[in-house]
Amino acid sequence: MSGRLVHIGSAVVDYVYRIDALPAPGTEKTASSFAQVAGGGFNMMVAASRTGMKVVFGGQLGSGLNGDFLRAAFAAEGIATLTPPSPVMDSGNCVAMISGDAERTFVSWPGAESVLSLGMMAPVRVAPGDWVFASGYTLSYPGSRDALADWIETLPAEIPFVFDPTPVISEIPRAILDRVLAHTSWLSCNTMEAGEIAGPGDVEAIAARLLSNHCPTAEAVIIRAGAKGCFVRLADGTAQAVPGFKVSAVDTNGAGDTHIGAFVSALSRGVPPFEAASYANAAAALSVTRHGGSSAPTDQEIQTFLGHDDRSTTVHGRKQEAHF
């Protein structure tokens, strides 16, 4: 039986506006729709939860309207919060503008999720079988990065630690990033983030350098490439490009979060890494066909999708071909 996912990240309230295209400087657009939804790390937690993993949240929520909104969203998905709310701050928010080509642009305002201390995290205790996840967002905040890095370094060696640098990787001090990478068991990043850490090159060379130079204790690195799929390199040198799935995207918001959540959930059930990567590719593909960042599919939906896939290559142990 798989253990829990202990998510030490940040959750915010997303204000989502749908527009045909981003407005030019000094101009105004009228959105075709608006929604207020739970976002940030919530999207990854939802993906893990809907695919069968028990999820708990060890980050910080606020004590105002945004925090209340997030707690209600957590409860609806069966996600427990381990820490008490901040007594002085509300949770932050993010304005997400989704354009007609399904791409998204964000403007965020940090709140309680940006402040962590070891004292706040005292209720967060891991147990054998648990998996721990953290993201670059929490490490980018001056008020939380040191405490989180200190806490990660105290994790028992047998507890898998999954890290996603996120697009704010350039805002993480390199010393903090190096400390966290040194304790990472599974690194999942996109192609831009991988290059930011390991330097330029083709995906195979970058993945090799990530393992040899930056994540010495990692079991694998996963480099996500959107619709193309992902590249997985294991610590033993085995590597595979795992192709994505062709779908009609309407909203790419949360696709990376869905990929990571589904991947970790599959790993926790004992699914081999390359097969777990294809499972995660399918989860991300389904998520972009739906509106909203927390649009992760269930395990049954993923299995049905994979069962109807007509690609010439399969995903169970045979070599995959994908081009990055």
Radius of gyration of CA atoms, rounded to a whole number: 19 Å
How much of the polypeptide forms β-strand, as a percent range? 15-25%
Count, helices: 10
Report helical residue fraction.
25-40%
Strand order of the largest sheet: 5-4-1-8-9-10-11-12-13
Low-pLDDT runs:
312-323
Describe the global form: globular
Secondary-structure-based class equals alpha/beta
What is the level-2 CATH architecture name?
Answer: 3-Layer(aba) Sandwich
Number of domains: 1
CATH topology: UDP-N-acetylmuramoyl-L-alanine:D-glutamate ligase
User: Would you list the SSEs in sequence order as H and E?
Assistant: EEEHEHEEEEHHEHEHHEEEHHH
DSSP strand count: 13
Distance between the termini: 35 Å
CATH class: Alpha Beta
The chain-level mean pLDDT equals 92
Describe this structure in words.
- This is Ribokinase.
- The chain is globular, with a radius of gyration of 19 Å.
- Helix content is 31%, strand content 21%.
- It has a single domain, classed as UDP-N-acetylmuramoyl-L-alanine:D-glutamate ligase.
- The protein has 324 residues and is an alpha/beta fold.
- The longest helix is centred in the C-terminal third of the chain and has 15 residues, at 273-287.
- The two termini are 35 Å apart.
- The strands form 2 sheets. Strands 5-4-1-8-9-10-11-12-13 form a 9-stranded mixed beta sheet, with helices on both faces. A 4-stranded mixed beta sheet has the order 3-2-6-7.
